[in-house]
Amino acid sequence: MTRNPERSQSSFLFPDGFLWGASTSAYQIEGSPLADGAGWSNWHRFAHTPGLVENGDTGDAACDHYRRFRKDVALMADLGLNAYRFSISWSRVLPSGVGTANPRGLAFYDRLVDALLARGIQPFATLFHWDLPAALEDRGGWTNPDVAGWFAEYSALAFRALDDRVRFWATLNEPWVVTDGGYLHGTLAPGHRSPFEAAIAAHNLLRAHGAAVAAYRARGRHAIGLVVNLEPKHAASKSARDRAAAARADAYMNRQYLDPAFRGRYPKELPAMFGEAWPRPAPDLSDVALPLDFLGINYYTRGVMRDAPEVPLVRAARVRQRGRAHTEMHWEVYPEGLTETLLWVRRRYGDVPLYVTENGAAFADAPASKDLVPDAARVRYLREHLRAAHRAIEAGVDLRGYFVWSLFDNFEWSHGYSKRFGIVHVDYSTQKRTPKRSARFYAEVIRTNGVVLDALSARTRSRPGPSRRRARSRRTGRSSRRR
Ligand code: FCB
User: Fold this and answer.
1) Which of 101, 69, 106 lies closest to 84 in space, CA to CA?
2) Element (H, E) at 108
3) Which residues participate in catalysis according to the annotation?
4) What is the pTM of this model?
5) CA of 329, closest atom in ligand 1
6) What is the CA radius of gyration of the chain?
7) For residue 41, which of 128, 115, 112 has the smallest C-alpha distance?
8) I need a surface site. Which of 170, 334, 448, 476 has the fewest CB within 10 A?
């Protein structure tokens, strides 16, 4: 679609009540993981195991948000955010995963929610953003069928404590990444490498999601949904093999969780892909496909896939696109994929309200001076993706909010602190926060409800950013921890 920037001031206006937010997660920003009676999480354990996280980094201090949350909320208000997506640390509120609650852990989220509401910021709470209580990991974690019940118990506790004020609940964040990174490739906690475990964990994540939704229907008063990461999967060539590879990658990443949650069945490709690792008899999905109030979509990039027999299970690998901009994660900048994804979801799963619950980019931006971080590549990334989101709205998608990943530079899982996704720079030695230029830009988008996206249009096409480094492993396409 071509646009004439002079034509109208309002071609990018977003709908009334649109949520303009930023996302974070507990282990990535809170720090103080064992404070006030919290139990160990699997990520605390993983990060403290030598060799598993770059540079030996851990979430022990992270952004020290646990102690600085009031100032952080003030910063969110300064930026004009009207929503904030955070996650609750299961092991803070239930140190053993089940059983006795830890009131001091719950009190943290209580205070956080109150501080947000006092500033007119809607809390958007994720129940599971990858940090499982270590006590439950010891009992098999996501491979133990009892995990659905444990998760429902924990969720009900969170609903009892916060649903009087929290209007948006997400059950799981990116279950695909949990199984692919945590149970198949071993790059994320718990670091296992087994297609058998990956299939079982996937199914139990879905059951846990269903159990939490059921618990919410019994007592919750607002909205609950699921958050998945999606990427359009394009074939690297017209060959039948590459096209089949793209279809497998799509079934594995995009449909493995959404088909069960919305249609009550697994994609037909999966049993053949998992082979003997696929559970038999076919897993029962009757408690999984419950109506949801919304779907959260995390969008970062697309996958251009080729046939790759050497890659376990999916037998497909990403092909790096020459001449395109890539982020520090080696993810191609591909804004049009966000429009494509939102339209695809509506076509396939119907008119469920959608939120972009994560979108953003890691760039190696350094402060130019004490108070200036000129992250032009991120500004460009956000501008193009916000426009892409708007195009989906124009095409009729019921998109109700957008959350940038992330508010702060933070602990990027197995990459430690080496990848900076924040619109706010964090100096980890002083904990000083410096809003980057992208934060100022985003604040302006929010203030004008999108109108500012009209400006500067011609010069803002994506072009190669500062990261021109070659993908470390172009051949397998596994140039990062996952995806
Ligand atoms: C998503 C995760 C989030 C962060 C971003 C970069 O997959 O949900 O925690 O790691 O990627």
Assistant:
1) 69
2) helix 103-118
3) 174, 358
4) 0.94
5) 6
6) 21
7) 128
8) 476
| Omega within 30 of 0 (cis) for the link into 281 | yes
The ligand 1 atom at the shortest distance from the C-alpha of residue 173 is 8
Residues within 6 Å of ligand 1 by CB: 25, 28, 173-174, 177, 229, 298, 358, 405, 412-413, 421
Q: Whose CA is nearest to atom 9 of ligand 1?
A: 25
**From the CA of 130, how far away is ligand 1's center (Å)?**
10
Cα 469 to averaged position of ligand 1 atoms, centre (Å): 21
Q: How far is the CA of 153 from the centre of ligand 1 (A)?
A: 25
Instruction: List, for residues 135-171, the tens digit of each pLDDT value.
Output: 999 999 999 999 999 999 999 999 999 999 999 999 9
Best mutation site among 227, 413, 423, 482 for ligand 1 pocket (most ligand atoms within 8 Å of CB): 413
CA of 45 to the centre of ligand 1 (A): 19
Q: Residue 455: what pLDDT?
A: 74
Please provide the DSSP assignment of 375-409 as one string: -HHHHHHHHHHHHHHHHHHHTT--EEEEEEE-SB-
Query: Which is the closest atom of ligand 1 to the Cα of 25?
Result: 9
Nearest atom in ligand 1 to 362's CA: 6
DSSP state of 282: P
Q: What is the tens place of the pLDDT at every residue in 68-89?
A: 999 999 999 999 999 999 999 9
Note the pLDDT of residue 447.
97
pLDDT at residue 468 tops 70:
no
Task: List the structure tokens of 313.
Answer: 């299970």
Cα-to-centroid distance, 306 and ligand 1 (Å): 24
Choosing from 129, 298, 404 the residue with most ligand 1 atoms within 8 A of its CB, the one to mutate for a pocket test is: 298
- Mind listing the pLDDT tens digit for each residue in 332-391? 999 999 999 999 999 999 999 999 999 999 999 888 888 899 999 999 999 999 999 999
The rounded Å distance from CA 189 to ligand 1 centre is 14
Report the distance separating Cα 469 and Cα 483, nearest Å: 18
**Ligand 1 atom nearest residue 130's Cα:** 9
- Quick check: 123 and 61 in contact, CB under 8 A? no
Q: How far apart, in whole angstroms, are the C-alpha atoms of residue 38 and residue 36? A: 6
Task: Tell me: pLDDT of 7 over 90.
Answer: no
First to last CA, the chain: 29
pLDDT confidence bin for 209, thresholds 50/70/90: very high
| 433 touches 423 (CB < 8 A) | no
Look over the chain and give the mean of its residue pLDDT values, rounded to a whole number: 93
Cα(30)–Cα(36) distance, rounded to whole angstroms? 13
pLDDT digits (tens, 9 = 90+) for 36-48: 999 999 999 999 9
pLDDT above 70 for 477: no
Residue 283, CA distances (Å) to 184, 204, 271, 437 in order: 19, 10, 11, 49
